[in-house]
Amino acid sequence: MPAYHSALNDVPDARQAGNMSILPIRTKIRGPAPLADPEQGDIVDETLDLFRANSLFRNFEIKGPADRLLIILILFISDCLAKIGSARTVPTQIEASKMLNTLSVDSFAIPGDAGFPLNAHYAAPASRADAEYLRTYLTQVRQELAARLVERLYADGTGKPNKWWMAFQKRRFMNRSLGS
Question: Of 79, 85, 119, 160, which is most buried with the most CB atoms under 10 A?
Fold first, then answer.
């Protein structure tokens, strides 16, 4: 059974940095990302929907530039779940939101950097300006993804993270981690 790929691979006129798509997102967080139509899903929704199914796969065939962004965001969700799971006590929704927001703005490697774990599959941005744009875009997307992940984890109102999501905290998509 093949892994699930991004439906946004076919988006026309999507800007690219390196060989990764810069896709619109629905967000209130300030940053360079183009704004998406509020009525339609975006890459963040797609990542949250596909995370649990795709995290079971060790191999992932990249079919387009949106798949490269999907991979980075799935690996970031894995790091977020590991961060929440490694806390000494079960964090409340507010504590988890603070932890994940801090994780999302911490420095991280982008394609082309020495510490990026998937450099073989990603092209480095063409210029310093593209690299800086990609870093700020990924920071904004990571912040939005962390906020929406916390909403999903604590949606049941018990004050504890959903056990069906937390079961994936030790699972590694493609046996990789972003190292956050």
Answer: 79
